[in-house]
């Protein structure tokens, strides 16, 4: 492992989802909603921040229907069907490289595997749909346990979400590696004694998994 830690005591691997397992484009949903609403991207971005739409949805404060209703209200278009909103929302997800899934499946032989993601139900359903089309297991089948921010009502980098994962899965921090693309999320995990590895382009998760 690139961190130089001894991998012989490594028993557990926790993966982020976006830009670790599946590539994402965080600017795409705003861009697509701006086109749908015939508004400048900067205006849609400002509306997003003003109403804190993403955080409320990803921490389970609103459900799918409330999220869609909120999007229609703030972008002033009551005619959008659920599928229109879901499709625009899912443009954040790019093509999923099958070799990443295959490598994770290999790792199941030697390590306990977990998923920890700040995400929303619409995105998870779409990722699982893509996986099924690739004849691959769903996220819930691929990992021993999945921890979605909207289900646990917590989000990275809050220390509480890491403590929740460690406690719920019965993990020892020092025996656990956590892979994430976000520096703040990495710092928070490190402070709890987890072996946190910052996944940074142009490297992919496969580069960081070579020595495991």
Automatic annotation (TrEMBL):
InterPro entries reported for this sequence: HAD-like_sf, HAD-SF_hydro_IA, HAD_sf, PGP-like_dom2
Tagged with keyword Hydrolase: yes
SUPFAM superfamilies referenced in this protein's UniProt entry, alphabetically: HAD-like
Hydrolase found in the keyword field: yes
Highest taxon of source: Bacteria
Keywords for this protein: Hydrolase
GO molecular function: hydrolase activity
Protein name: HAD-IA family hydrolase
């Amino acid at each position: 492992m690139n961190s130089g830690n001894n991998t012989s005591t490594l028993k557990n691997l926790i993966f982020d989802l976006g830009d670790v397992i599946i590539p994402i484009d965080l600017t795409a949903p705003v861009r697509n909603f701006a086109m749908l609403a015939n508004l400048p991207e900067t205006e849609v971005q400002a509306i997003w921040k003003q109403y804190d739409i993403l955080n409320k949805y990803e921490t389970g404060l609103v459900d799918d229907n409330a999220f869609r209703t909120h999007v229609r209200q703030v972008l002033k278009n009551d005619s959008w069907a659920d599928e229109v909103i879901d499709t625009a929302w899912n443009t954040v997800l790019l093509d999923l490289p099958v070799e990443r899934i295959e490598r994770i499946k290999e790792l199941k032989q030697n390590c306990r595997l977990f998923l920890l993601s700040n995400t929303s139900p619409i995105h998870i359903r779409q990722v699982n749909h893509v996986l099924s089309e690739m004849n691959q297991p769903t996220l819930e089948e691929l990992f021993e346990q999945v921890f979605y921010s909207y289900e646990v009502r917590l989000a990275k980098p809050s220390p509480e979400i890491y403590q929740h994962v460690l406690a719920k899965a019965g993990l020892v921090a020092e025996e656990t590696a956590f892979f994430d693309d976000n520096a703040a999320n990495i710092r928070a995990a490190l402070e709890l004694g987890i072996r946190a590895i910052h996944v940074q382009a142009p490297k992919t998760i496969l580069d960081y998994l070579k020595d495991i």
